[in-house]
Amino acid sequence: MSFREVLTRRGDRLHLEDVAVARLAEEFDTPLYAYSRAALVERAERFERAFGNTPHLVAYSIKANLNLAIAHVFTRCGLGIDVTSRGELERALRVGARPENIVFAGAGKRADEIDLALAVGIRMLNLESLEELECVATRARERGTVAPVAFRLNPDIDPQTHPHIATGLRTAKFGIPIEEAREAYARAKALPGIRVVGVDFHIGSQITSLAPFREALGRMRAIVLDLQADGHAIEVIDVGGGLGVEYTGQDRPPTPEDYVGVVRKTVGDLGATVVIEPGRSLTANAGVLISRVLYRKTNGDRRFVIVDGGMNDYLRPMLYGAHTRIETDPLRPGSEAPVDVVGPICESTDRFAEDRLLSPVEPGDLVVLRDVGAYGFCMSSTYNGRPLVAEVLVNGERADLICERQTVEETWARERIPEESP
Ligand code: LLP
Which domain range does residue 130 map to? Predict the structure, then answer.
């Protein structure tokens, strides 16, 4: 089953749900991130429903989109949250996630982050090294508590995705090698202050075929059976995130139902609660970045459309060579022609698309980047002295500001000029 369209054309004008993109640009200015609430809810509900009667927790990987309003939509749908820092943990609590529905991963958790996780009583800490295990045990004993932990195991799988977002290969910094799992769990079991509750893995992101998941899940199943035979009570099997989304129009990623089906089939019968940590697949397609055309020009034989959004606002095309679908508003008559869509940043790589076939545009028109709801605003910066842009959440005919546009003064508000020595 495919998803409902997030962006639709009514006549020549683009709409996000029932709100004209032009109205959003007018009311909130550009560049502007806008998200469809219905799209977020649709995705959350489809992951939830796909589990049927299998004990599970869908933990939204909040790194994909940190905005409180977005995370709040998900906690309202009954989702938990996967966090990777103190900031994310505090956001999860702020939007009402119950501590027992929060899991915490990351190769470099600081002592204060571990302390907070223990103090609020999260579901489990996903440990990534033996030294971290010792640190968590010490912190727990000092607090007079017991830390619920899993090890993130590295199953050495090639997720067939962009190398920058592959995490389950032996050479990645993540997790501990799966062959060392039994030894690590034995060590953990013997440590006061530690309670082993689960296993965890995450092999990468934007994975558009089920094969790598099947392979990793098969390896996890085998190791869970070994650990159970060793006498460990495995209450939680956390299979991470990574499900890919449609970016190009030709990706055809598995649906939530296909993906959860494979997860349930492989590890759903082991007597444990199954945790998944989707990030991108919950938010990417729900968000757009609206920019305005400033100028057009031709340099040599290249035609450029210069817009007011730049790589500081949306970095994925530049960082990962990610293809980003682009719509124009209004849709003007005339044949499509290849153009480079570029921003105002002083870098040649500040280009959202190269040789893209677009309908004619004029200064003042809108250019809408699709599928930017994940790893978009949260990876933006103030490079070139550009304030962070605004975000709005669209719900039917309604559009609520969910993050104010930063002012120029705010970009330097925490900076200080020391007094000059004479
Ligand atoms: N769980 C863990 C432990 C993770 O490290 C991640 C993502 C997720 C879950 C969520 O994965 P997702 O379902 O979103 O694929 N900035 C990159 C993506 C980095 C992903 C980092 N970890 C990008 O824009 O493609």
Answer: 105-278
